[in-house]
Every structure is written in structure tokens, then in C-alpha cells.
Amino acid sequence: MITMDDIIREGHPTLRAVAKEVPLPPTAEEVELGKEMLQFLKNSQDPVKAEELHLRGGVGLAAPQLNISKRIIAVHVPSIDPEKPENGLSTVMYNPKILSHSVQEACLGEGEGCLSVDREVPGYVVRAARITVSYFDDKGEKHKIRLKNYEAIVVQHEIDHINGIMFYDHIDEKNPLHLKDGVLVIE
């Protein structure tokens, strides 16, 4: 079981490396890793389990954050519709790639955080509001999905991790709370 002790923190060289492609189909070990990453996210969002296991809440996790330089990400974004809780985005992506993105940009009103960053980093992280992503599942089958707003931001944050990019690399150092006209702010 993955815990906070397994997650490496900023400054570790693996977080700045471009991760290696996963051969397809993924190995049994890589499939198990993906399942454990997804389970960590589910545990971190369960108030009882999170407290019991001392987990910080997370919606995404990339293999490099576990000091494993492979292109594997897990995302578990709960549905905002309480009537349809199964409609959230919950999956493991092997070799995810952004195929296209919107001109429209978006950011989270509260800024972004990261399980590998133990400090608050103020500032807007501006990303594409909509993306089309291709990825492979644990059987090596290819998928293509369109994501928008919060789900798109979460997946872009995790794909950044497999490319050696940290979220605060996107923050304008001179003016962290400045936004261009037209940027969608997601609260």
C-alpha cells in the first residue's frame, strides 16, 4: 500500500526527469503499480482512511512521484454530481499524450497543490481549458478522451510530472496573481 512516505518531495532529481515510455501491454508489475496508485487516491479522499493512514488528499498521482521514472499516471476526480457519483474520472493511464488543446485557458481559483510539494505556492497555474488525451489502459488498449475544466487541469498536472515539470513552473514569478483577459477561473 502506498503512503505519504513513498512520495518523493520537490528537489528530488526524479521529479525533473522525463519518464520512460511503458512497453505495451504493461507488465503485471506496472498494472499492480497503477492499481496501488489509484487506491492511494481513493484512500486519500476517504476522510476516515486518510486520517488513519496520515494521507494528504489527492486527485492525481504520477509514477515519478514514487521515484519510478515511468509514464504512468492515476487520476481519481470525484463527480460533482451527487446523483451520479460514478461519472467522475477515475483511471490509470499508461503513456498518456495530449493530442490537442483549446485556445481557451483555465486555472483553479485557489491555485494548485501537489503531493510532492509540502509548502503552499501562491499563484495561478494557467493551463488549457479543454484537452484531448490518448492513453493505454492496463490491457494495452488505446483510448482517446476529451476532458474539460477541472478534469483537464488534473490530467495536465500529472502529464507534467512525467515530463519533469512541476506545477509552479507555470506560475508567473513577477506577477503570480495576474491573469490575462479571458482565462476561465474554476472555483
From TrEMBL:
Protein's UniProt keywords contain Metal-binding: yes
Free-text cofactor note: Binds 1 Fe(2+) ion.
Gene3D superfamilies in UniProt: Peptide deformylase
Keywords, sorted A to Z: Hydrolase, Iron, Metal-binding, Protein biosynthesis
Catalytic activity, reaction form: N-terminal N-formyl-L-methionyl-[peptide] + H2O = N-terminal L-methionyl-[peptide] + formate
CDD domains per record: Pep_deformylase
GO molecular function: peptide deformylase activity
Enzyme class of the recorded protein, top EC level: hydrolase
UniProt xrefs under SUPFAM superfamilies: Peptide deformylase
Binding site for Fe cation: 114, 157, 161
Active site: 158
Cofactor(s) the protein needs: Fe(2+)
The keyword Hydrolase is assigned to this record: yes
Protein EC: 3.5.1.88
InterPro entries: Peptide_deformylase (IPR023635), Peptide_deformylase_sf (IPR036821)
Sequence similarity: Belongs to the polypeptide deformylase family.
Function statement: Removes the formyl group from the N-terminal Met of newly synthesized proteins. Requires at least a dipeptide for an efficient rate of reaction. N-terminal L-methionine is a prerequisite for activity but the enzyme has broad specificity at other positions.
Protein name: Peptide deformylase
